[in-house]
Amino acid sequence: MNRRKKLTTGILLAVSTVVAAVELYGGLHFYTRPYPAGNISGYVAWGAGGPTDVVSRALSVYGARELGTSIIIQNKTGASGSVATEFVKRQPADGYSLLFNSENPPLYKVMGLSGIDYDDYYPVILAGQQTAVLVTAADAAYTTVEALFAEALENPDSIHLATTGAGGLTSNVAAMMEAVSGVSFNQVPFDGDAAVITALLGGHADVTVINYSSAVDFVKDGSIRILAVFSGQRLESEPDVPAISEIYPDYGRYFPWGTFVGVFVDDDTPGDVKATLSEAFRRGWESQGFQTFLEENHITPLGFTGEEARAYIRKWQQVTTWILYDSGQALYSPANFGLERLGEEETQ
User: Fold this and answer.
1) What is the per-residue burial (b if ≥16 Cβ within 10 Å, else e) of 145-157?
2) DSSP β-ladder status, 160-163 and 207-211
3) For the chain, what percentages of helix, strand and coil (3-state, to nearest 5) are there?
4) Is residue 188 classed exposed, middle or buried when 0-12, 13-18 and 19+ CB atoms within 10 A define those classes?
5) What phi and psi, each to the nearest 5 degrees, are found at residue 254?
6) Are 165 and 171 contacting, i.e. CB atoms less than 8 angstroms apart?
7) Which H helix or E strand runs over 224?
8) Sign of dihedral through CA atoms 179, 181, 186, 187?
């Protein structure tokens, strides 16, 4: 009888220990299997078919292969990417919710869009940087950037600039143009590059600024004309198109500058999960397939992770937030958020 009692007590103790372990680790599958133990959700902050979406979906394939799981991509658009940025931050910080986003979050605080930005995230990897181009429809009246600027100075409300919203590429470059050249446009917001191009080709806008990778096919088929490249030098693939700094040298102090796309995870995620994600995505990024994708889409490779990525983002943030503030488009001074104005030698 005594022996039977001891046996029963031992069994009950063993069962209670297992139950406690299950409760502590949230389920046996997390207790027995390393990360990732299942599929991962990826949230793209911009619309389907745009540059952020295209790069994100390509990179997710290579990252998922290295992780040995699937990354289920969803588009969660709105408010210059802040809808997705805030949504992912509300999910458990366990590495199963990834944010695929562009350069917009570093601008949220000065624009008054959100209190959540990349300070709340860990940069798994920055995939690449793109070059912005100023474009019109091929049959538009403006054939040079000088003619466009002359009209904008004379009649600013007459020219409709299709934008991706406050803090997006087009509004950022519009702020740069206003700060340097004193030109302003009647800005009309659309949801992503694909919608902006549709508006331009449909005659609902006169001009816009998009990534070269989004414009190149339309340039080739003759439906879009590039007036200038927002870079310190001409694009090799468009040797006849001037760099904006050739015409207006004052732009040169802002370059190199451009949009970027990356993968981010909640900064509260455990360190070993962050390391696993960065290592996997770095291997995927280095693969010949993804490097070919970057080359074919005219994207400058970055491949930055962790602190290197943070430093890159910080410098981009300092340059761009002060451009917005100087042009009057930022609600708050970057200094309010500890962002010092970079000297001219630091922007080179």
Assistant:
1) beebbebbeeeee
2) parallel
3) 50, 20, 30
4) middle
5) -90, -10
6) yes
7) strand 224-230
8) negative
Count of beta carbons in the 10 Å neighbourhood of residue 225: 19
Name the band, by pLDDT with cuts 50, 70 and 90, for residue 80.
confident
- The Cα–Cα gap between 116 and 243 comes to 35
Tell me the whole-structure pTM to 2 decimals.
0.78
CB 223 within 8 Å of CB 158: no
Place of tokens 């990356």: 262
In this model, does residue 15 exceed pLDDT 50?
Answer: no
Beta-strand ranges (E) seen in 56-213 are: 71-75, 97-101, 121-130, 132-137, 160-163, 186-189, 207-211
The single-letter code of the amino acid at 268 is D
Residue 304, pLDDT > 90, answer yes
Token pair recorded at residue 2: 């005594």
How buried is residue 227: exposed, middle or buried, by Cβ count under 10 Å (0-12/13-18/19+)? buried
Token pair 């540059």: residue: 51
